[in-house]
DNA sequence: ACTCTCGAGTTACCGCTAGTAACACACGTT
DNA sequence: AACGTGTGTTACTAGCGGTAACTCGAGAGT
């Protein structure tokens, strides 16, 4: 890869950094979570130590990479959450936005959430330490919105935090399962999850022949 | 390591396998997700190749280790789910059982769910590929129970699966967050999550001064 | 014009990992 | 006595994250 087409070196370090991140992105999209520092360096047309100078260590590069996607996703989610519509519609829009995102770039989100579950090899990114932040950030963000807008009485702030993390976890796990098995359309999944959040679990009747769940 | 204190070799391979698993368990409890094959072999008083003869590869050992804990946890959850009580009480009991389990052995469950998020070092178990099965199994199991007992009308089976995975994800994410921050008691967390499942999100009133969430 | 500095980039390495090949010893069987 | 067979070892490969030490080339100073 002859990336230095022009010997222009007035490129700031920031610009370089962005180039490296884009190269990393490409590799992650191609190789999935198996992307190695060597591969990323090669894709960027340079060698490892430069990567380390820019990002400190693998975690630093990962964090930078994750921040981009996380920020983008959070922006989308915020937009869905702020849409002028009924509460139920907003919830569905938010769920749908998240699911659409992981559907559009499954490898990226698999990379962000699931450490090295690619097809071959075993030495992948150790994402575990950093996958939490993504879910945590989403959880905290959602908690903020819930706490800001809903009147939950005393202790509502804490309740909102629990719910924020819980709902994000629900969304994540269901999305993950759905992405793997594709048992239904996205719309159906959204509807089902919203129904769950809307208390249909509590409202459902027992099946004939025994005590209910 | 003179492990052959007695030349007793009538020990069946199964017995040996269980010993190895127990050693692995000990190491995981001590070192967390950083446990390496070398460390486990050393703890068992043997060397690596034997581990590989018994478990094939790291994934095999991990799978065997995970199966033990997963089975045990699932048994507990089933018991809580089958207790003779109201639906809400059962849900709370199940949540509490899960949370009590991860509270009692945080390192084990961190190991099962989070790949290599230990304090130091970076080369840990690549659990990512295997953490899904645990959550998947719990999700499917819960889906089974929900589908068996609740009358959800047409498409109820699929709805139950979505809910199973969603609820498990909620439980997992909330538990994970709670274990890290301990923002409240276990009972409070259980109650908050059950409230969420019981539709309090939909029922809550908007806060004064703007449209609701 | 010559040197000096300095930063970008390289090669070559370390220590670690998962995983394997090849060898060594003790046992019950024929 | 000779022979597999199971159990264990040592010594190795290949690849990873990460780093030390070197090289090279562009500007600044005199």
TrEMBL record, chains A, B:
Classification via SUPFAM superfamilies:
Homeodomain-like, Tetracyclin repressor-like, C-terminal domain
Under the heading Pfam families, the entry gives: TetR_C_32, TetR_N
Residue ranges of every copy of the HTH tetR-type domain listed in the record: 14-73
Q: What positions does the DNA-binding region cover?
A: 36-55
Q: Which InterPro entries match?
A: DNA-bd_HTH_TetR-type_CS, Homeodomain-like_sf, HTH-type_TetR-like_transc_reg, HTH_TetR, Tet_transcr_reg_TetR-rel_C_sf, TetR_C_32
Q: Which Gene3D superfamilies match?
A: Tetracycline Repressor, domain 2 (1.10.357.10)
- Molecular function via GO: DNA-binding transcription factor activity; transcription cis-regulatory region binding
**Which keywords, in A-to-Z order, does the entry hold?**
DNA-binding
The name this protein carries in UniProt is TetR family transcriptional regulator
Report the source organism.
Streptomyces humidus
């Amino acid at each position: 890869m002859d990336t230095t087409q022009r010997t222009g070196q007035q490129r700031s370090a920031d610009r370089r950094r962005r180039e490296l991140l884009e190269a990393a992105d490409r590799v992650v999209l191609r190789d999935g979570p198996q992307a190695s520092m060597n591969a990323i360096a090669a894709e960027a047309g340079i060698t490892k130590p430069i990567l380390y100078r820019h990002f400190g260590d693998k975690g630093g590069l990962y964090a930078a990479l994750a921040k981009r996607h996380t920020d983008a996703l959070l922006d989308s989610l915020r937009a869905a959450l702020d849409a002028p519509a009924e509460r139920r519609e907003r919830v569905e829009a938010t769920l749908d936005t998240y699911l659409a995102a992981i559907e559009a770039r499954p490898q990226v989100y698999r990379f962000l959430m699931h450490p090295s579950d690619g097809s071959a090899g075993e030495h992948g990114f150790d994402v575990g330490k950093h996958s939490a932040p993504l879910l945590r950030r989403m959880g905290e963000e959602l908690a903020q919105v819930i706490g800001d807008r809903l009147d939950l009485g005393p202790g509502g702030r804490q309740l909102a935090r629990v719910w924020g993390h819980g709902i994000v976890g629900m969304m994540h796990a269901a999305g993950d399962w759905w992405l793997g098995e594709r048992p239904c359309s996205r719309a159906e999944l959204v509807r089902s999850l919203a129904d769950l959040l809307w208390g249909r679990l509590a409202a459902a009747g027992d099946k004939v022949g025994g005590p209910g769940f």
